[in-house]
Design goal:
The chain is mainly β and 147 residues long. It has helices at residues 63-72, 111-114, and strands at residues 4-13, 16-24, 32-38, 45-53, 56-62, 85-93, 98-102, 120-122, 125-131, 137-143. A hairpin with a 2-residue loop joins strand 4 and strand 5.
């Protein structure tokens, strides 16, 4: 299995998304950060400190930052994006390597249809963590009414 950031807990509440997990298959030395990359504009990135102790990591991100970055980006949310949805992929990085955040070691496949996290709304944009078809963790930013 490829090295990755194995997610153990996802806590979307109080205007933040808190992530807890373990670094799997890579030395957990040095400074680490949570890195968010806008899927439709890979050059647009946000990053936040992650605390690492042993191989365990913990970090959080404010959903207002995602709403602001999504809302003020050059293309704007919904401009050329089907359904007014933008997606942000989550990695853990030490500056040299980027480990994709996901949950693969639990033998539960197809989390996209099983695990549903609550949406938080900021400035008319709903932000919700979700598992992809490959059991990676990403964030969805959606305009309009909550779903």
């Amino acid at each position: 299995m490829k090295p990755h950031a194995e997610i153990a807990e996802v806590w979307p509440r109080d205007g933040r998304v808190r992530l807890v997990g373990h670094i799997h298959g890579h030395p957990a030395e040095g400074e680490w950060r949570l890195l968010l990359t806008r899927r439709s504009h890979a050059e647009q990135r946000l990053d936040y400190p992650a605390q690492v102790k042993g191989d365990r990591f913990e970090g959080e991100l404010p959903v207002a930052d995602l709403a602001a970055a999504t809302d003020t980006a050059e293309a704007g949310i919904g401009a050329g994006v089907e359904g007014g949805v933008e997606e942000w992929d989550i990695h853990l990085t030490d500056g040299e390597v980027e480990l994709r955040a996901g949950r693969r070691l639990d033998d539960i496949h197809g989390k996209k249809k099983i695990m549903v996290f609550p949406e938080q709304r900021v400035r008319g944009i709903g932000v919700r963590p979700y598992y992809t078809v490959k059991d990676n963790l990403s964030l969805e930013c959606r305009t309009g009414a909550s779903t």
